[in-house]
Specification:
- The protein has 58 residues and is mainly α.
- The chain is built from two helices and no strands.
- The protein is rod-shaped, with a radius of gyration of 22 Å.
Length: 58
């Protein structure tokens, strides 16, 4: 299945296959944490605004 990839010139020749997999995992983890952080920030912001508006109405 991966035989065609052995003939392709690697983009980063200094990386081993294991290093390439690890770098890919780190990049995906950073992107995931960024997306989760943004989503959490939006949810917290909405909750905070709702609580403030409820306080002002009372």
């Amino acid at each position: 299945m991966y035989k065609p990839f052995h003939a392709v010139q690697p983009w980063f020749p200094f990386l081993t296959p294991l290093g390439d997999q690890q770098l890919g995992g780190v990049i995906m983890k950073i992107m995931q944490e960024g997306v989760f952080g943004i989503a959490l920030g939006i949810l917290f912001s909405r909750w905070y605004r709702k609580e403030r508006s409820d306080e002002q109405e009372e």
